[in-house]
């Protein structure tokens, strides 16, 4: 009886594993095809001044439309690409497209102040990555100040020693750094005193029920104060309603991003 139960449980786990492995293989095979055939697109979402509504910057967000499966979200394929060591290629194509687009906006006189790009862990660990990035900007006639790197809090905490050198180098040259998904499960704030950071992006989880939960308001207010004291700009992610915008303004948060202002969209 006992061994039978153990056996069936093993079978259950191995079936799950097989499905995960199949998903991984499928996604990476298809992603390789998309990378080779220009199948990845970039959409942009404005980052705004909460008071005036002025568009300050654009965040570049990768989009993949699969010929059979339709849209595959980055939340699903980015982790698979990271595991397969393919994230460099994704990152390169996003930078290439977004850089070219930003250049065009600049030429047309409609570019906002900055272009924000999401960076995954393994991208930053390639030796000489910072130098390559500066050369890339130069090729498009963009200044380091035009680019903001969005790096998740998880990466900043877990890979601090690996990313610190490259980040410091880039920041010395003027590239900006934003902490993405701030406040999601990491108690260490020490990295904020040691790593160069220009902007904190408060995770959507704090904004979603801001108007119903006074404790969320307290946390957001504390993050805004922290930013003010450290000289770091604070931006709220996932602002969807006018009521949320009002609470954010009440606690002194000046910048936001979300469906209330604009959904991510093609150039
Ligand atoms: P993120 O960088 O935190 O991006 C914000 C996500 O929230 C985006 O999802 C955006 O579409 C969504 N969003 C924006 N405003 C709202 C709102 O008001 N309400 C709600 N519910 N959602 C909102 P998306 O595009 O699916 O991207 C998910 C994550 O995938 C990103 O989170 C980022 O971590 C990653 N990602 C996206 N593009 C890239 C990329 O080019 N490179 C890398 N390494 N990661 C990327
Ligand atoms: Mg981001
Ligand atoms: Mg985020
Ligand atoms: Mg996020």
How would you briefly describe this protein structure?
The chain is of the alpha/beta class.
Which structural class is indicated by helix and strand composition? alpha/beta
> What does the main sheet amount to?
8 strands, mixed, barrel
Strand adjacency order, main sheet: 1-2-4-5-6-7-8-9
Hetero groups bound?
Answer: ligand C2E, magnesium ion
3D shape = globular
Uncertain spans: none
Overall residue-averaged pLDDT value: 92
Q: Please provide the count of β strands.
A: 9
Helical amount: 40-55%
Q: For the CA atoms, what is the radius of gyration?
A: 20 Å
Written as H for each helix and E for each strand, in order along the chain, the element string is HEEEHHEHHEHHEHEHHEHE
N/C terminus separation: 62 Å
Treating each run of at least 4 consecutive H or I residues as one helix, how many helices?
11
Q: Tell me the β content.
A: 15-25%
Oligomer: single chain
Describe the structure.
With 267 residues, this protein is of the alpha/beta class. The protein has helices at 2-36, 74-83, 87-108, 121-124, 129-139, 153-158, 160-172, 191-194, 204-208, 214-230, 242-250, and strands at residues 40-49, 55-66, 70-72, 114-118, 147-152, 176-182, 199-202, 233-236, 255-256. It has eleven helices and nine strands. It has an eight-stranded mixed barrel with strand order 1-2-4-5-6-7-8-9, surrounded by four helices. Helix 5 runs parallel beside helix 7 (160-172). The protein binds ligand C2E and magnesium ion (3 copies). One magnesium ion binds at residues 59, 118, 150, 180. Residues 180-181, 201, 237 line the site of one magnesium ion.
């Amino acid at each position: 009886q006992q061994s039978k139960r153990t056996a069936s449980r093993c079978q259950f786990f191995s079936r799950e594993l097989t499905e995960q492995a199949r998903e991984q293989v499928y996604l990476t095979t298809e992603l390789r095809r998309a990378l080779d055939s220009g199948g990845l697109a970039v959409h942009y979402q404005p980052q705004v001044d909460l008071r005036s509504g002025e568009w300050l910057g654009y965040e570049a967000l990768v989009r993949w439309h699969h010929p059979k499966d339709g849209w595959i979200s980055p939340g699903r394929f980015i982790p698979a690409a990271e595991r397969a060591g393919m994230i460099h290629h994704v990152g390169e194509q996003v930078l290439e497209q977004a850089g070219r687009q930003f250049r065009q906006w600049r030429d047309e006189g409609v570019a906002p102040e900055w272009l924000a790009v999401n960076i995954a862990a393994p991208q930053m660990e390639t030796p000489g990555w910072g130098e390559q990035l500066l050369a890339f900007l130069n090729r498009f006639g963009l200044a380091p100040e035009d680019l903001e790197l969005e790096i998740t809090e998880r990466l900043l905490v877990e890979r601090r020693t690996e990313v610190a050198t490259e980040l410091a180098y880039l920041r010395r040259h003027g590239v900006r750094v934003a902490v993405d998904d701030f406040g999601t499960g990491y108690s260490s704030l020490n990295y904020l005193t040691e790593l160069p950071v220009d902007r904190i992006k408060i995770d959507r989880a704090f904004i979603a029920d801001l108007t119903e939960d006074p404790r969320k308001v307290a946390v957001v207010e504390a993050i805004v104060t922290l930013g003010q004291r450290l000289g770091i700009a604070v931006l709220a992610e996932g602002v969807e309603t006018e009521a949320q915008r009002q609470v954010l303004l009440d606690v002194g948060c000046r910048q936001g991003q979300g469906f209330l202002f604009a959904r991510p969209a093609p150039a």
